[in-house]
Write a structure and sequence with these properties.
The chain is an alpha/beta fold. It is built from six helices and five strands, in the order βαβαβαβαβαα. Strands 2-1-3-4-5 form a five-stranded parallel sheet, with helices on both faces. The longest helix has 26 residues. α2 crosses α3 and α5 crosses α6. The model has no long low-confidence stretch (mean pLDDT about 95). The protein has a single domain, classed as Rossmann fold, CATH 3.40.50. Helices cover about 50% and strands about 15% of the residues. α3 links the parallel β3 and β4. The structure holds 5-O-phosphono-beta-D-ribofuranose.
């Protein structure tokens, strides 16, 4: 069985600077992932193929990022029973990113996409690792350590400003 647990896909290479944040977190937490470009509009057949094969590849959760008329996360969610996390990407011709946010967030009943904030790919990586960690004790323990380290940072900074 492959150790790739998370599939990261995005509509265009122009989304990569944002989506790389998800990959970076998964690397830090040592969760296997694969990353590729799949466009809902320009390569619909590739999208159908990706969604159809994801589960048999061992993927447990898909992170899908897109901007503008951002149909990739929702369409992938319609094609798989794996959980899909959507990352609205603020693309250059965006109307402040609201096009990306609303087209990923406003899914019809029955086909949810767990939508993170605009350009919130790091949180998508954290959420994906949490989902994997719910069933994988090693990853779950690493997520516990990650939370503890965030807590310690806040406590340290509080001590610093209180002095
Ligand atoms: C979407 O359109 C992509 O996800 C990207 O955010 C946006 C612009 O794509 P490019 O024109 O840069 O390829 O499909």
């Amino acid at each position: 069985m492959s150790d790739i647990k998370v599939g990261i896909i995005m509509g265009s290479q122009s989304d990569l600077p944002v989506m790389a944040e998800a990959a970076k977190f998964l690397e830090e937490i040592e969760v296997g992932y694969e990353l590729t470009i799949v466009s809902a509009h320009r390569t619909p057949d590739r999208m159908i193929d990706y969604a159809g094969k994801a589960r048999e590849k061992g993927i447990k959760v898909i992170i899908a990022g897109a901007g503008g008329a951002a149909h990739l996360p929702g369409m992938v969610a319609s094609l798989t029973t794996l959980p899909v996390i959507g990352v609205p990407v603020k693309s250059s011709n965006s109307i402040d990113g609201w096009d990306s946010i609303l087209s990923i967030l406003q899914m019809p009943s029955g086909i949810p996409v767990a939508t993170v904030a605009l350009n919130g790919a790091k949180n998508a990586g954290i959420l994906a690792a949490s989902i994997v960690g719910a069933f994988d004790e090693t990853v779950g323990n690493r997520m516990e350590a990650f939370k503890r380290s965030m807590k310690a940072k806040v406590e340290d900074s509080a001590e610093e400003v209180e002095q």
